[in-house]
Design brief:
The protein is α/β, with parallel strands linked by helices. The protein is about 35% helix and about 15% strand. It is built from eleven helices and eleven strands. Helix 3 packs across helix 4 and helix 4 packs across helix 9. The longest helix has 25 residues. It is globular and about 55 Å long. The N terminus and C terminus are likely disordered.
Length: about 400
């Protein structure tokens, strides 16, 4: 798809791509300084305990937001809500209050909790969108003690609960993340889209169906309940995602020469940590070929499920990032299958450059502004409301075989 530098494509198209090419002097100096240090700047710290880590040193305030810690009682996952302080000047009254619950998964090689940079970055975006979005950082279980085989089932139960709670409150859900956290956000989004589509399909066939007690605590067997959940997960917003953990894209070697931050050797070790078995356990059967950990590898059926459930994908990344070639593949597949969204691609930029916006780097500030604008515009997109949805019998996606019990 052709793209115009600095300008998004017409909104009528399913996927818009905005390309940027300007590189500031500050960034040119920065990449020269940090490249000899790669990947020490992003190397994971000490291993976290199994399960969701409770973050003892989280900041209590950021950018006019009070950060409130809570433990989600049904999954024991620690959540950190950015609650606007009523005395802050940035709080603007826009209707009934935040209509979107944004759950942010911080990068860190699947092994580190959110850094100070993450708290500041989320705080800035949360303050800018305080009238329409409420942000929450998710402290998800981390490798090596809680690799993907342990972490993802917990996060799926959490997501199902959060979506149900948001549906009851009349709100939408957005999954957002950077790097490894973007991988988690994409993995959960594809899982939900496929899972709910299979549930709807089974209902339409009058077979065994329901999300089941493992996700919701009770069978979800009423048409009204399932209709309520449709379109609640509105979008996935990703920054420099780890889209394919196989680390085998033929274009990575050429990009590796220019990447000032990560490098292919590092991304390979990160993938191995996330797909490894928990300490002391036998092989779990999860490897980098599994689309549950390599979202770009999802089948055509799963991409179509994203379309059916009206889940949009928005992304931003730089081309001097070894993860960029696989992100290109993800973006092209979204376009091919009709997954709506917008992308910003910055030629010559490093991994997760929008986070550098908190330090005043010009490209980072512009990238952060793009994310804010995209999320603000998303709130204006008209979706079907519950009363306007078609009966489930008219929405059969034909994603499961007749009589198959829905257990995934």
């Amino acid at each position: 798809m052709p793209a115009t530098a600095g300008k998004p494509q017409p909104k009528s198209q399913l996927v818009t791509v905005q390309r940027e090419t300007d590189l500031s002097l500050l960034y040119r100096v920065l990449r020269t300084v940090i490249k000899p240090l790669r990947p020490r700047l992003v190397k994971p710290g000490k291993p976290q305990p199994a399960g969701s880590p409770r973050l003892a040193d989280y900041p209590k305030h950021k950018n006019g937001c009070k950060i409130v810690e809570r433990c989600h009682e049904s999954t024991d996952v620690w959540l950190y809500d950015f609650v606007p302080e009523t005395s802050s000047s940035f709080v603007r009254k826009q209707g009934p209050g935040p209509l979107h619950n944004v759950y942010y998964f911080a990068g860190g090689g699947f092994q580190s909790p959110p850094s100070g940079q993450h708290w500041s970055f989320v705080g800035k975006i949360a303050s800018s969108l305080a009238g329409t979005h409420r942000f929450t950082i998710v402290s998800y279980p981390l490798a090596p003690n809680s690799p993907a085989s342990e972490s993802l089932p917990v996060l799926r139960r959490l997501l199902a609960r959060l979506i149900s709670e948001s549906a009851t409150a009349g709100k939408k859900v957005v999954l957002m993340g950077d790097s490894a956290g973007a991988n988690v956000a994409l993995s959960l989004g594809f899982w939900w889209a496929t899972h709910l589509s299979k549930t709807i399909d089974a209902y339409s066939r009058k077979t065994s169906f329901g999300l089941g007690p493992i996700e919701t605590g009770k069978p979800l067997d009423l048409e009204a309940d399932m209709t309520k959940l449709r379109s609640i997960l509105e979008s996935i917003v990703v920054i420099s995602p780890a889209a394919d953990l196989r680390n085998s894209n033929s274009q990575m070697a050429a990009v590796d020469q220019h990447d000032p931050l990560l490098g292919a050797e590092y991304t390979g070790s990160v993938a191995e940590a996330w797909t490894a078995s928990p300490p002391g356990e036998l092989d779990t059967g999860i490897n980098a070929d599994d689309p549950h950990v390599s979202p770009a590898l999802n089948s055509d059926v799963n991409y179509r499920a994203m379309v059916l459930q009206k889940i949009h994908v928005y992304g931003i990344y730089g081309t001097h990032d070894v993860l960029a070639p696989d992100t290109d593949v993800l973006r092209e597949k979204c376009e091919k299958h009709g997954v709506r969204g917008s992308w910003m691609i910055w030629e010559g930029q490093m991994h997760c450059f929008p986070l550098a916006g908190i330090y005043g780097m010009e490209e980072g500030v512009k990238g952060m502004g793009w994310l804010i604008r995209i999320m603000r515009e998303e709130t204006k997109i008209e979706h079907n409301h519950i009363n306007g949805d078609k009966p489930l019998t008219q929405l059969r996606p034909r994603l499961s075989s007749r009589g198959r019990r829905i257990t995934e």
